[in-house]
Amino acid sequence: MTESIAAKKLSRFGLSPDFATCLVEFESQDGTTSRLTFPADQLQEVIGLLLQVKQVHSEKTSNDQSRSVMLAERVGVLVQPEMVFVDFMVGGAPLSFAISQDIATQLMEILKQRLPAS
């Protein structure tokens, strides 16, 4: 049987001392503090699932938008021979992506075509 977790408020999050386990601490509906833990090697999957939930929530609750959007406050780019690394600051936290140079070139061309000339 699947148990639902109803969090009133997220309190904190972190990693175990050996970095093998992720921890999310939250306040339950009854005011008690509870914890959710999962293996750190599943972190990317958990983030992907949370982004999917964010998208579904946006679709169901917003009348004028059909996509979920996170606003980047800053961006950084590092070009390496095999990959391009793009770091976005979102809500004070870095969100990093590694893309191939082919995809980076496609993105550059798209932006050149679609952005107004400065």
Task: Provide structural commentary.
Helix content is 28%, strand content 39%. Strand 2 and strand 3 (33-39) form a beta hairpin. The radius of gyration is 19 Å and the shape is extended. It has helices at residues 43-61, 101-114; strands at 7-15, 21-28, 33-39, 74-79, 83-90, 93-100. A three-stranded antiparallel beta sheet has the order 1-2-3, with no helix packed on it. It has a three-stranded antiparallel beta sheet with strand order 4-5-6. The chain has 118 residues and is of the alpha+beta class. The chain starts with 6 loop residues before the first strand and ends with a helix.
Name the descriptors.
118 residues, alpha+beta, OB fold (Dihydrolipoamide Acetyltransferase, E2P), three-stranded antiparallel β-sheet, 2 helices, 6 strands
Question: How would you sum up this structure in a few lines?
Answer:
With 118 residues, the chain is of the alpha+beta class. Helix content is 28%, strand content 39%.
